[in-house]
């Protein structure tokens, strides 16, 4: 159990690397080139460390690292399991890309406090790694809160009145939900079971029954407000005041995925899929998630600010994941896990594109973007790939996860879920395709402040990479599917 | 009769309430302190009353005294001496404060002091 | 054998040093002496903790007279928690307070100031170790008198009426306590706490004891600033010299709560029917009101020190809420929070001391832009604030965890209590965040941009508290074990 094997040590290193990265960045504050090189190196090292766990995990290894006991029977412990590994692999890889992107973006827009920005970015990644690899609910909760606190200054980066108000919404909802709902749920679980470990098959079965199960599920789902299930979704559009790299990596990948990841993990490892399936009171989650998917898409239709539109699209896509896991079919759990990755690739590409447009032309509104595809073909090409992935068109990543979700919905004959997925696909197309149409087929209506082509090279590099990854995930999803199938192998 | 027989406890209760009343209602800091003193005096009376043993004499053993003399309990008297000392210190400190307040604000009326602080 | 004398050292050493400090020729010597004595008391407290943890309660007969006739000094797990809090707060406040004391108190008065400080230290330690009811009264009054002197030295004239209010209310509280002790003595003929408990069993006529319990509890509630008897406290902390606020915010109310728990559990608990019900109904409702109203008022307070004072009203509520559950879990949670809250609030006042020293005031307006000019101090303030809110990785989280755990055992009532705890925590988020926003998002006031970071001598103790907060948030075994032992001792008598 003490798990100080080499892979356990690797887990420790995975947590230390981003922290060390933050320290290095802080020390190199006077030399921007050195600082950013350090940031990229830390990201590369982290990616290497996380990815080196993958072969072992595919072979069924579950490395552990147990540090010390915080509360009786609740240690500060980490464990690499398929779901967390996927999340960590995704976040670390995209950290590399978005660090490169950030260099271009932050310099291109002459943002202030760049050292603080890169440091907090690293701390946020540290927290995301902690969330991904926590072996129990308390450890997860600790890192979940570190993630909230460390991203707050990133959201309020500009420091003006608007970002302060947005920060208040962001911090208030996330902290309020986690203290008001998530923590009581954890304590309740502990009082019932005496443990908080993530155990395949769940720990709550036999300790809780009837409507209380639905209530507990509600506390967890809304407690993890980072998943932005309506009505606790307001923080995500608010967070869009942040610089675009933050919106891209944190509010399309690390933070929001930490939320849905927590929900999926809790459903699989705390409740147990079979237990929830056998308990009717948990059934409310499917309609609520379905409502969020549709409602957020409808709101997205009416947005003209590109980043806000993407934010509502994210809310909708996050609830896809919640919906998939709430269907409680084995295949849909795999779909949920895959969608964490698939949506990550697609959405980060979209945000990168939005940031690229802003850096080059200072445009933020869709109505100003007529004909921009001709000025910035690479950016808008990548945007098209991301958008198609959101809609779920092959050969993009989004298709793969939707395939498994639909498969799961058919397995359990959940027609509400099937209908929702189909309807939202139509809605996704309805708000993304007009943007593409504007960008490529209409003539420019608003002259940019100065002549511009594409944004600077780090932005283009990052943008192209994530667009390629979105396609690559469609082609090479085999190992990922194999890994995530391990999640449900006991159920099949 | 029994109710009246315990008259010193009645006095204790009445003094206590008079003192408390003065502390709460008087806006003048010095009068508050006087109230506080009455309040404390009531407690002295309580302690002195409780040490009295029926037919008891002062707890001083005379030289070669007989064994069957009844003495009053000396402990409460000793306790209350200490409490009196504490009370005197408190009063002294309180009065010193009143002097300082008078120097700083030019008044010793609580409501005036409060309104001066509010304007600040 | 010096080791045998450990139990009385925390009282004797500062008591004897106080007049010497008063005679010191200059302020630095007096400060060094006070700091050394305080550190020595802290070392003794640590030694006592080790001894008590290993071999249980220590009883010491002053002058060799056996209890219950002589004066008994008793040190158990509960006492050492209190001793650690008192001496730790005093030491950190003194070490970090040099600069702010020099700025706020005239040099010629400083030796006397430190003498009063040492008297307060001796008296608070005395409360923690005293084994009989009357000595507790005497120590309580010494600590209060010394405390009045310390507070009255505050930097502006508003310290004077604040002190006067504290003096009047404190004296009434202590007098109530004295009446209660008198009534108990009348019926039992003893003042020793253990003996009182034993003899109460034989008292045939219990109404005076009931009255005694009421007087003692209410009297101590005044001193503990239990809502609604807290009105003296926010101003007393806010107007006191910065260093004094650190010391008193950590000890003064805690000491009264400490005595209250001793009396209500170890003496009255089990002595007459329904005491537990009365105790828990009254205190639980007051605790809930305090938690909600104290935190709510803190939200609207623009003077950050007063805000912290109102926050303390709420936090005292947490401690009493735990105690009023009268279960092992609840009482331990209360004692854990006594320890953790002393650490958190002491730390916050340390940070305020540094801010006031550099910015010249402690209102929200003064704090504008402090995040940029004093990054280390504000960083510590934020981390301690998070601990106050109850964020994981900090000591405050552990308090809330145990408190909520204990509440869960109470069924439906527990749900209400948990709701109150959570609402109060969320209000803490609001009032802490108001400070954070002002400090980080607003520009410093005109002409105030040249502020610099606080001196190292303030930052080091401040960050020591922050790190202690994180340490006890990760590995709470020391306070949890001590608190569980203390709760066992308290509850064992209440049966």
From TrEMBL, chain A:
It is found in: Cell membrane; Membrane. Its main location: membrane. It comes from the Bacteria. InterPro entries: CPA3_Na-H_Antiporter_D (IPR050586), ND/Mrp_TM (IPR001750). The keyword Transmembrane helix applies. Keywords: Cell membrane, Membrane, Transmembrane, Transmembrane helix. The chain crosses the membrane at residues 6-28, 40-59, 83-105, 117-135, 141-157, 169-188, 208-229, 249-272, 284-302, 309-331, 337-360, 372-395, 415-437, 457-476. It is a multi-pass membrane protein. The keyword Ribosomal protein does not apply. Residues 134-427 form the NADH:quinone oxidoreductase/Mrp antiporter transmembrane domain. Belongs to the CPA3 antiporters (TC 2.A.63) subunit D family. This is Cation:proton antiporter.
TrEMBL record, chain B:
Keywords: Cell membrane, Membrane, Transmembrane, Transmembrane helix. It is a multi-pass membrane protein. Signal peptide: none annotated. The keyword Magnesium does not apply. The keyword Transmembrane helix applies. It comes from the Bacteria. GO terms for cellular component: plasma membrane. It is found in: Cell membrane. The chain crosses the membrane at residues 6-24, 33-50, 78-99. It holds the Pfam family Oxidored_q2. Belongs to the CPA3 antiporters (TC 2.A.63) subunit C family. NCBIfam families: PRK07375.1-6 (NF005621), PRK07375.2-3 (NF005624). This is Na+/H+ antiporter subunit C. It comes from Iodidimonas gelatinilytica.
């Amino acid at each position: 159990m003490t798990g100080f094997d080499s892979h356990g040590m690797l887990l420790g290193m995975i947590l230390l690397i981003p922290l060390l990265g933050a320290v290095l960045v802080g020390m190199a504050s006077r030399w921007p080139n050195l600082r950013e090189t350090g940031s990229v190196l830390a990201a590369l090292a982290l990616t290497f460390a996380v990815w080196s766990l993958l072969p072992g995990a595919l072979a069924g290894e579950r490395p552990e690292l147990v540090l010390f006991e915080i509360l009786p029977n609740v240690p500060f412990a980490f464990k690499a399991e398929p779901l967390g590994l996927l999340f960590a692999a995704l976040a670390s890889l995209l950290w590399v890309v978005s660090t490169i992107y950030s260099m271009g973006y932050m310099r291109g827009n002459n943002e202030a406090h760049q050292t603080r920005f890169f440091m907090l970015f690293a701390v946020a990644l540290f927290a995301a790694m902690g969330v991904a690899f926590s072996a129990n609910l308390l450890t997860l909760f600790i890192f979940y809160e570190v993630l909230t606190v460390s991203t707050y200054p990133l959201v309020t980066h500009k420091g003006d009145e608007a970002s302060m108000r947005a920060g208040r919404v962001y911090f208030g909802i996330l902290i309020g939900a986690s203290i008001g709902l998530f923590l009581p749920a954890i304590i309740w679980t502990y009082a019932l079971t005496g443990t908080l470990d993530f155990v395949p098959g769940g720990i709550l079965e036999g300790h809780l029954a009837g409507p209380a199960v639905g209530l507990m599920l509600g506390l967890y789902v809304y407690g993890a407000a980072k998943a932005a299930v309506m009505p606790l979704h307001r923080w995500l559009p608010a967070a869009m005041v942040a610089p675009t790299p933050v919106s891209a990596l944190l509010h399309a990948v690390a933070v929001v995925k930490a939320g849905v990841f927590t929900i999926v993990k809790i459903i699989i490892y705390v409740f147990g899929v079979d237990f929830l399936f056998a308990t009717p009171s948990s059934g409310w989650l499917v309609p609520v998630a379905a409502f969020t998917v549709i409602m957020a898409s409808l709101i997205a239709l009416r947005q003209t600010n590109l980043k806000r539109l993407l934010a509502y699209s994210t809310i909708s896509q996050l609830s896809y994941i919640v919906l998939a896991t709430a269907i409680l079919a084995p295949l849909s759990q795999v779909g949920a896990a895959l969608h964490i990755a698939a949506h990550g690739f697609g959405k980060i590409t979209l945000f990168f594109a939005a940031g690229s447009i802003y850096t080059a032309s200072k445009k933020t509104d869709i109505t100003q973007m007529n004909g921009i595809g001709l000025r910035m073909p690479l950016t808008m090409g990548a945007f098209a790939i991301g958008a198609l992935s959101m809609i779920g068109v092959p050969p993009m990543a989004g298709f793969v996860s939707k395939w498994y979700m639909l498969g799961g919905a058919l397995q359990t004959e959940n027609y509400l879920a099937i209908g929702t997925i189909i309807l939202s696909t139509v809605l996704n197309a309805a708000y993304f395709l007009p943007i593409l149409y504007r960008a490529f087929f209409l003539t420019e209506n608003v002259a940019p402040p100065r002549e511009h082509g594409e944004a600077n090279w780090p932005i283009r590099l990052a943008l192209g990479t994530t667009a390629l990854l979105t396609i690559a995930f469609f082609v090479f999803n085999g190992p990922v599917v194999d890994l995530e199938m391990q999640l449900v192998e006991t159920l099949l | 009769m029994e109710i009246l027989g315990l008259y010193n406890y009645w006095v204790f209760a009445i003094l206590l309430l008079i003192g408390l009343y003065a502390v709460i209602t008087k806006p003048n800091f010095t009068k508050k302190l006087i109230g506080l003193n009455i309040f404390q005096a009531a407690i002295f009376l309580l302690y002195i009353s409780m040490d009295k043993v029926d037919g008891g004499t002062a707890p001083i053993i005379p030289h070669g005294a007989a064994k069957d003399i009844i003495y009053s309990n000396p402990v409460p008297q000793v306790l209350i001496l200490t409490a009196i000392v504490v009370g005197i210190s408190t009063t002294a400190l309180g009065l010193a404060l009143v002097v300082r307040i008078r120097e700083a604000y030019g008044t010793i009326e609580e409501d005036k002091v409060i309104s001066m602080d509010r304007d600040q | 054998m010096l080791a045998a004398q450990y139990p009385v050292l925390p009282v004797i050493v500062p008591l004897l040093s106080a007049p010497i400090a008063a005679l010191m020729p200059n302020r630095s010597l007096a400060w060094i002496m006070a700091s050394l004595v305080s550190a020595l008391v802290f070392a003794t407290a640590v030694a006592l903790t080790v001894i008590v943890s290993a071999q249980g309660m220590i009883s010491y007969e002053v002058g060799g007279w056996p209890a219950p006739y002589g004066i008994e000094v008793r040190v158990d797990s509960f006492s050492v928690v209190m001793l650690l809090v008192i001496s730790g707060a005093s030491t950190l406040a003194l070490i970090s307070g040099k600069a702010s004391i020099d700025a706020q108190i005239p040099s010629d008065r400083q030796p006397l100031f430190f003498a009063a400080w040492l008297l307060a230290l001796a008296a608070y330690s005395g409360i923690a170790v005293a084994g009989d009811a009357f000595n507790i009264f005497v120590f309580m009054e010494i600590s209060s008198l010394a405390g009045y002197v310390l507070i009255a030295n505050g930097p502006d004239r508003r310290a004077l009426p604040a002190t006067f209010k504290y003096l009047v209310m404190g004296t009434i509280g202590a007098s109530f306590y004295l009446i209660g002790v008198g009534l108990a003595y009348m019926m039992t003929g003893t003042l020793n706490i253990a003996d009182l408990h034993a003899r109460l069993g034989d008292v045939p006529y219990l109404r005076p004891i009931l009255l005694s319990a009421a007087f003692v509890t209410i009297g101590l509630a005044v001193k503990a600033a239990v809502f609604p008897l807290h009105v003296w406290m926010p101003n007393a902390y806010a107007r006191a010299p910065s260093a004094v606020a650190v010391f008193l915010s950590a000890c003064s109310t805690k000491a009264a709560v400490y005595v209250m728990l001793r009396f209500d559990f170890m003496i009255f608990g089990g002595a007459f029917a329904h005491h537990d019900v009365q105790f828990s109904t009254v205190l639980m409702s007051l605790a809930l009101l305090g938690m909600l109203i104290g935190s709510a008022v803190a939200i609207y307070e623009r003077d950050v020190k007063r805000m912290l004072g109102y926050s303390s009203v709420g936090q005292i509520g947490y401690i009493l809420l735990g105690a009023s559950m009268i279960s092992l879990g609840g009482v331990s949670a209360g004692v854990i929070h006594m320890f953790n809250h002393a650490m958190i609030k002491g730390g916050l006042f340390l940070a305020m001391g540094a801010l006031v020293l550099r910015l010249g005031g402690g209102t929200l307006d003064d704090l504008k832009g402090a995040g940029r000019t004093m990054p280390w101090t504000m960083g510590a303030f934020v981390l301690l604030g998070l601990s106050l809110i109850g964020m994981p990785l900090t000591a405050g989280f552990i308090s809330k965890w145990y408190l909520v755990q204990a509440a869960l055992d109470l069924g439906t009532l527990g749900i209400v209590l948990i709701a109150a705890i959570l609402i109060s925590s969320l209000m803490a988020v609001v009032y802490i965040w108001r400070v954070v926003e002002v400090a980080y998002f607003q520009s410093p006031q005109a002409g105030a941009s040249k502020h610099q970071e606080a001196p190292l001598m303030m930052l080091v103790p401040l960050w020591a508290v922050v790190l202690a907060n994180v340490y006890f948030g990760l590995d709470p075994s020391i306070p949890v074990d001590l608190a569980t032992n203390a709760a066992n001792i308290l509850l064992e008598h209440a049966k």
